[in-house]
Amino acid sequence: MAKDTTIQDFEQLPTFKQEEPEMPPKRRRWWLLLLPGLVFALLVVAIILKLQPKPAPQAPLPSPTPTSTPTPEEVFTSPWATDSAVLKIDADLVQLETDLNQVNLQEPNLLPPPIQLKLEFELP
Amino acid sequence: MSRPLLLTLSLSLVLAFLFWLPVCNFALHLPAEPEGTLHFALTPSPLLAQEAFPSPTSAPPTSEATYQQLFSDYQFQLNLYRQAHDDYQLARDRYLQFKTLTTKQETLESFRQLLKARNTTVKTYLLALKTRLQNTPGVTPLQQVRYTNYLNQQVAFIDSIQSQADSFATLPDGFKISQQFDSRYLDIEVLSYEILHTILMGRQLHLKDQVQLQINTTKTLLSRMASLGGDTTKEQRWALEADNRLLRHQQKLSQSLEQLALLKKNRSNRPDQFTAISLTLQEANQYLKETVSFLKETLREVKRG
Fold this sequence. Notes:
The complex is a heterodimer of chains A (124) and B (305).
Chain A: H1 25-51, H2 84-102
Chain B: H1 3-28, H2 39-42, H3 46-52, H4 63-98, H5 101-135, H6 141-165, H7 171-227, H8 233-265, H9 270-304
Helix pairs in contact in B: 4-5, 5-6, 5-7, 6-7, 7-8, 7-9, 8-9
């Protein structure tokens, strides 16, 4: 009886080709039509978005400047409040206050000049 | 004559006529004046022209302007004096080092220049001080006359020293003149501080008089209100408080006088001593401010009713 003496040839290993499932031709055609359409649609959308008027950049709102609340002017009820003598004293006092704030009580420039005395020296 | 030249000539003639017209017009409308008054037109002098046609904006020089002018002169002379002092020191050092006739002569000349600069500086200072004194409100006429006389005496002395300084021939002669100035300058210094104090105190007294006037007016007003049946007890008490502040003010003025007396005796560090006097007068001013503040409060109370 002849023995099956098959020697495995490692050099010539059979290659296993993985078979990918083939897309049916009908579907492929659909894809071929749809893909450029999608690209075109995306382009159109991008152009439309680009052409849309941009919202004006919002200027930074200035921080509200602190304003001092004006103190309500005192209402004087006395009949003397409008007396001419009272009003005159009032005006004179305001003027006097200004004068007192502005009076010069230093005069540093009018101090006696720094003059050097005793200029003589022993002659040789 | 070529055509462009003719054109240019005629154009310049037209322009000249246009400029000349207002001048003629002005000359024709000059007011009739007696003979001899138009000399300024032939020999234009700015001063005369100014007198003939005074500008509506030009005002006569005020006393403040005079003071500013004198003060600028003083500052200028002070700088010249400093320069002359440096030059003299340099010449003196060279003379002491080389002992030559040339360096001796240079020292003599620089010493002469120094004396001249020193005299002029002190003189312009005194004139500026005098103008300041005369412009200060609150200085009594008696004080003005008195100090003006003193200042005039010092200026006359400086003038006499200056005439000597122009003519001395040797360094020892120059030294003698300088020593005369030195001994006199001590008096000038004291006088200057006294006048400065008078000026500052005059300003305070002037303001104090105005404050006193307001106190009196307020008191009169309160009396009138009381006579009409109003209750002014509180306001009168406040006016009295204001009056009391003036007493403090007076005390400060007296203190400044005591400080001045010390300054006259003590020669060391007089500028610092005068600064202390100035501070005392500022404290006095503070009391005046408080007085006015009290019066304003009193008046506000009157208006409230």
